Amino acid sequence: MIKPLSAAISTALFACAISPAMAQSTTPTDLDQVIVTGSRTPISIEKVPGAVTVVNQEQVQRTLNLTEDATAVLARMVPGYSESSQAMSNSGETLRGRVALRLFDGVPQGSPLREGSRNGTFTDMGVIGRIEVINGPSAAEGIGGAGGVINYLSKNPEVDGHQTTVSTRYGTQFKDDSGQSKIGITHTFKGDAADFLISGAYIDRGIAYDGDGRRVGLNTSGSLSDSYSKNLFLKGGYNFGEGQMQRIQASYSNFHIGGKHNYIPVEGCRYDAVECPVPSTNTAEKGSIAGSLAEFNDFEQFAAKYTHADFFGGDLSVDLYWAKQAMRYVPENGADRQLVKPAPPEDQRIWDQSEINSEKKGLRAAYAYSGLFAVEGLRLRTGLDLVEDTAEQRLALTDRVWVPPMKYTSLAPYAQLSWDIGPVTLDAGIRREDGQLEIDSYTTTAYRDFTPVQGGKLDYKANLPNFGAIWRITDAWSVFASYSEGFGIANVGIPLRNIQANSPCKAVACIADLQPLITKNKEVGFNWRGEQAQVGISGYRSTSEFGSSLTVDKVTEDFILTRAPTRIEGVELNSAWTFNDQWKATLLYSRIRGQTQYYDGSGLNKEMGILDISPDKVNASLTWTPNGRFDATLGVSRTFSRDLRETFVNPSNGAVYLNEEDTYGYALWDLSMNYDTGTYGKLSLGIENLLDKQYVLTWSQLPGWQNFFSGRGRMVSLTHTFTF
Predict the structure, then answer these.
(1) Backbone phi, then psi, for 298, in 5-degree steps?
(2) Among 293, 344, 457, 489, which is least packed by CB within 10 angstroms?
């Protein structure tokens, strides 16, 4: 139904485009330069001593013209964010070399107890108004913020009265089964005191093809190819009291993305002179695995918020939330899924699918007061967070425990002081994390020797300080320096499921990998903002005494968690240039390097690999706006090659350690165009991978369990948006 509808509308609009029409303004509304992420109450970006990226609605929409991938906009607009996985999974996607905490309107997505790499696809991107990114660790948002924070903020009604927007989209790679279609409807109302937003969307996706015209393989953690998604989002608020200084707001989100189960994976082969002289990436063929179930992501959340803009002279906000997530993965028949050990021959193995279920509920209270102690410019922000997070992982087809039920409860008060002294802002604060992790007793799977593991409780207590300063030297120049800490738990599900008969510890109380992940970040930078350009450059060093990194087990070819000291350093540049009324450009650059240890006591001499540290990258765009009705943007994303070859010798026993990893880079071009017909709505054309480049995703260039995936080839999409 959607494909012919979209095609009909598009044909009519192209016909109308050559005739005169009243044009509506396409100039985006400038948002106030304030953020709420990491500060919990609105604060001007110019007073934040650190690198913060705000992706506005126009930038989100420009990416949506090209692709519905939820993380693609981050890869294009945030310097330290790695390339998009182009999958339902966001495995391998990091922010400055670490896993970031993802929020939707301040509510955590997924669970840090069992990071399933699925929390990047949790809503329809059409409801997102802006994205705020804290590029270093932040304790302010609670557990999981050790790698930075990405907060997706939903749209708000902007026009008085009622307004309805209908959007249809059709994309194709010009193959019979490659079509992608979407329909979305949003209705808003804005009155004197009340407002609401209702949004629904449905997307149907075909299979993806690479630049060579071959089907892209199905990702073992879940693919966007051959899937559908549906989303419902409701939000409403009411302002009341004297001067309407008080507001109560509630929102509900229900998102589902599922595989259509029309294809089965076909494993490719990496180059080997004997066994694979002509390498080929994973692909897919029509069919299904008997008895298997379709993969899915289910995200459901409810949030209520109360604010008072003059509560004893300050700003009060109280948030209550409940969220539930369920994720099912694709069927696999690896040795670790079998009912017996050793695994039977390939043709006798069973298939099984893992499922992660998590639920969280919490309360967040924040209070901000300016002019503390009658001192001009002195501001206090304080609050308290309560959270209960539960998670478990099962093998669904055989109903087996893989990761036992876990529950994390936390009480965390915090306080932050900032002082504006003329052109200088000083900022300092502390958060107290007081949590407890409770894990049930369980027995591991056959692959791990049916090992009984004693459950138990672990206490997590930490004081997490931060401080920084920013000096606005002139109206154009500013410099900043900061120190911050973040708190997390390093994906405890992986070490729990990997305990086996020869493990030295078989009880929760003595598993070292369950210790907390505390990240410390030092950063300096400067910003320049002129009449026609702006540039920001920052350098950072992030360290963890007991960090977390991913490696691939040579036997199972699956991820294993490595806990060891880590040090990550990087440089970022973000810039925008306005040459005149018609021409604008952006340029960003990121370089990240990380070190860990070969063995306990070796020192930080081992370079971290591509699973943690993304390659150097440059993203650039050029926008042409000849008039108020038409604009076009040409963009390029360039990742660079890395040739990692190290040899380390243990001086005490002569043991030799090799660390080799080669990845190649590539450049991907894209083109986005918008034409506003006025009466007949807005027409957008997007061409992803404009030159139809054949490439293998960077994280997939390393050997791993069925992970040899090429990237998506040229995709042409046409979107029609009509507002009335």
Answers:
(1) -120, 120
(2) 457
**What Cα–Cα distance (Å) separates residue 708 from each residue in 105, 218, 449, 662, 705?**
35, 10, 30, 15, 8
φ/ψ of residue 694, rounded to 5: -95, 125
Kindly state the average pLDDT of the residues 193-221. Answer: 94
Average pLDDT over residues 625-632: 96
Supply the mean pLDDT for the chain: 89
**Residues pairing with 486 in the sheet:** 519
456: alpha, beta or left? (left if phi > 0; alpha if psi -120 to 50) = left
Q: Which residue has the higher pLDDT, 143 or 672?
A: 672
Banded model confidence at residue 557, pLDDT cuts 50, 70, 90: low
Chain position carrying tokens 């300080």: 465
Helix segments in 480-519, DSSP class H: 493-497
Tell me which residue of 269, 373, 261, 364 sits closest to 319, measured CA to CA: 364
Mention every residue, 6+ apart, whose C-beta is less than 8 A from residue 216: 86, 207, 208, 209, 210, 223, 225, 281, 282, 283, 284, 709, 710, 711, 712
Question: What does 249-315 look like in DSSP terms, one character per residue?
Answer: EEEEEEEEEEE---EEEE--B--BTTTBSS-B--EEEE---TT----EEEEEEEEEEEEEEEETTEE
426 DSSP 8-state letter: E
Q: Which region, left, alpha or beta, applies to residue 681 given φ > 0 means left and ψ of -120 to 50 means alpha?
A: left
- CA pair distance 716, 684, nearest whole angstrom: 11
pTM: 0.90
- Measured CA to CA, the distance from residue 293 to residue 295 in angstroms comes to 6
**Lookup: tokens for 673:** 């165009």
